[in-house]
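Exam prep: given the inputs below (a chain plus fe (ii) ion), describe the expected output before reading on.
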Amino acid sequence: MNLFPNTIVFPARTLTGAGVIARLLAECVGFGRRGIIVHGHSLVKHGVLARILQATPAGCQVKSWEHTGGEPTLKDLDCLLTFAREHRADWVAGVGGGSVLDLAKACAGLYLAAETPLKYHQGAPLETRGIPFIAAPTTAGTGSEATINSVLTDPDTRVKKSIRDPMLIARLVLLDPDLLAHCPKSVIAHSGMDAFTQAVEAYTSRHASWMSDTFALKGVELIAANLEAVYREGTIEQCQGLLAGSYLAGLGFSMGRLGVVHGLAHPLGFRYHVPHGLVCGVCLPYAIELNRDAMGVKYESLSRAIGADLLTWTLRMLECLQMASPFKGKAIIEKATIIKETLPAWSTQANPKPITPQDVEWLLSRLF
Ligand SMILES: [Fe+2]
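Solution:
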């Protein structure tokens, strides 16, 4: 196994601890006096945005932009870019879940780009660095704060994929467990199982290295140790543990990539409008079965990190989090297209067992 991945990219600086979000704007001033905070509705509802804005340093001009919810699209990004450019922003901060962070990240990254977002979504390389991106996750799940990806959907073609470039990496991350306090239980469950799946897939990926393994395995351990407690209303320490696990899973899959669960999750989630973490969570046990032999001794390492057999623990956790397949009993829409989209995916290509059309068909037969 390789020691390192081909490219090592970390967020430049990460601040951790309860209450650290209060320092957001004081830290952002270092990047310039004009900025945008991208957020979801819950940040307004629970008064967190007001508290952040109250601490605006003198002479700073900060505007907020609310993502209306749902999977972020290229159209959302176009609107946000126009808003940020009109404000002549020096930086873009995302305070929210994965969708909010992905939008803010793409906005900052493409702020100075010559082409439209569609060109980069279609694979054109970024030719210039954008403006600083600052990330503060309010869910413990996607790991977006630690990655170079922004997952966006093209509303015209319905293609959901990542704009991926090392220049998209956050300049500053704030991991504040207090931000999980207002996260609904279902979101804790779905995003937690997304993070767990990401950590397991990164650890067992064909592109794994010592470095990605180190982050991913610690991520597995922390998520397994804290997810159930946080779901049932955990302590600040348990929230911090889950947030750290999600962050480490993000670093792990940035370096080691993912597997077939994530390859299948995009085409499936998009067609059925099912939350990403729910698709990942319910698909994971079948992917573990499929990959059991190819995982080799790593299966035992994962079980040791969790403190229980990997497959048994995963099934028990899904039950405890009340996560059942949302596809059971439904008809499979566009089965051939789903299979066609899953096979060449960046994640599927990293799966420990080389994935055949029959494997995807088997996974679908278990889920539906
Ligand atoms: Fe994911």
